[in-house]
From TrEMBL:
GO terms for biological process: methylation. InterPro entries: SAM-dependent_MTases_sf, SAM_dep_MeTrfase_SAV2177_type. GO terms for molecular function: methyltransferase activity. This is SAM-dependent methyltransferase. It comes from Kribbella alba. Pfam families: Methyltransf_19. Keywords: Methyltransferase, Transferase.
Length: 277
């Protein structure tokens, strides 16, 4: 994209190879190769508990493609902010967006050092897609980032994407504040798209399964927090959920288009797309 390091407003700390990275783990779920032995060890441990997890990750990418199409047409949105974007993989957000509207613009935001390095390299010569190294948990800093403030026109609708990232933040009240701060900064007609790891915490078999997966992740990522459906629903305060509402990824599509089962890992992730009135 031709931005200087200073203009990117990015920070690129050293990569810690002694600890797994959630971005690299997710990349493994999608069949990617940007990972290290420490990531592969945790990946194998998760597969023993939830072998459907890679299929769920692919379903999350399928959801991303669907909500992008809906935001572009008929939503009329031509600028997107993808927070906690993760490592480049097949059908990245900017590829999906530009396929739907070649004139659209995408800004990725992530703080993971591996993601920053790969993201900036991938987008170096792309005039429609941009990368900002920043922490999504600080909305004011993200919105003031030189890339974000230069590329996005916040007086026009924006598609805000938070795909499987908010579970990394442990304080639900703070997460609500973070999402509300972004929504407040966006004009009417903007859209909010969220997928979030869920745990009903109701004593059910699904809750026991979700807790086992959550605990395994927490060994490496102490701040991880799966949330109840009510807690996830509260993130959509002030916006109007669009069809099919807030549902499990397995229920995002009609029965004849479902690719993961409603049981097990298929119910671990809730998805929603909403519009700001």
């Amino acid at each position: 994209m031709g931005d200087s390091d200073a203009d990117r407003g990015s920070f690129v700390p050293d990569v810690d190879l002694s600890r797994p990275s959630d971005a690299r783990i997710y990349d493994l779920f999608l069949g990617g190769k940007n990972n290290f032995e420490v990531d592969r060890q945790l990946f194998q441990q998760i597969l023993k508990i939830a072998p459907e997890t890679p299929a769920l990750a692919r379903e999350n990418r399928r959801w991303l493609a669907d909500i992008v199409r809906r935001m572009v047409r008929p939503g009329g949105i031509d600028q997107f902010l993808d927070l906690g974007a993760g490592l480049p993989t097949e059908e990245n957000t900017h590829e999906l967006v530009l396929k739907a509207d070649p004139r659209a613009t995408v800004v990725y935001v992530d703080k993971d050092p591996t993601v920053i390095a790969h993201g900036q390299a991938l987008l170096a010569d792309d005039n429609r897609s941009h990368f900002a190294g920043a922490d999504l948990a600080d909305p004011a800093a993200v919105l003031a980032n030189p890339v974000v403030s230069r590329v996005l026109e916040l007086d026009r609708p924006v598609g805000l994407i938070l795909a499987l990232v908010l579970h990394q933040l442990p304080d639900t009240a703070r997460v609500r504040e973070i999402v509300a701060a972004y929504v407040s900064a966006l004009p009417s007609g903007s859209c909010l798209a969220i997928t979030h790891a869920s745990n009903p915490r109701d004593g059910s078999r699904l809750a026991e399964f979700a807790t086992a997966v959550e605990d395994k992740f927490r060994d490496a990522f102490p701040s991880i927090s799966f949330r109840t459906p009510d807690e996830i629903a509260s993130l959509f305060e002030g916006v109007e959920l669009l069809e099919p509402g807030l549902v499990g990824l397995s229920d995002w599509w009609p029965d004849d288009e479902r690719q993961v089962s409603r049981s097990g890992a298929g119910s671990l992730v809730l998805a929603g797309l909403a519009r700001k009135p």
